[in-house]
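Lab manual, section 2.4: Encoding a predicted structure.

Procedure: take the sequence of the chain (114 residues), apply the prediction step described in section 2.3, and record the output as structure tokens. A sample record is shown.
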Amino acid sequence: MTGSGIDEYIASFPADVQAVLQEIRRRIRAAVPGAAETISYRIPAITLNGRRLIYFAAWRHHISVYPVPAGDAAFRQDIGPYLHGKGTVRFPLSQPVPYHLIEQMAVLLAGQRG
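Recorded output:
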């Protein structure tokens, strides 16, 4: 499934959550030139060179983004409050989403896969 699958996924949420998901999608695609889209494990995934790079999903009270890349000490400190388990970050929908961290995750993951 391609972008239309992601469109359908996003459309299944309330308007305020749709706006967050669309912004995440836009920011990741802008941060990783040449990225493509698919649905994997029934959630949106951004791919690079045919390989899944980063996933994002909406839940009742948060947005999850996975996997968490390795990064420097500053990145680890910034992402720390959002870590949930070993490879997932959760951004509460009750707070502003730190889109810059999602962009940074995508760039780091792309560099690690490069």
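Check your result against the sample. Helices lie at 3-11, 15-31, 73-79, 99-113.
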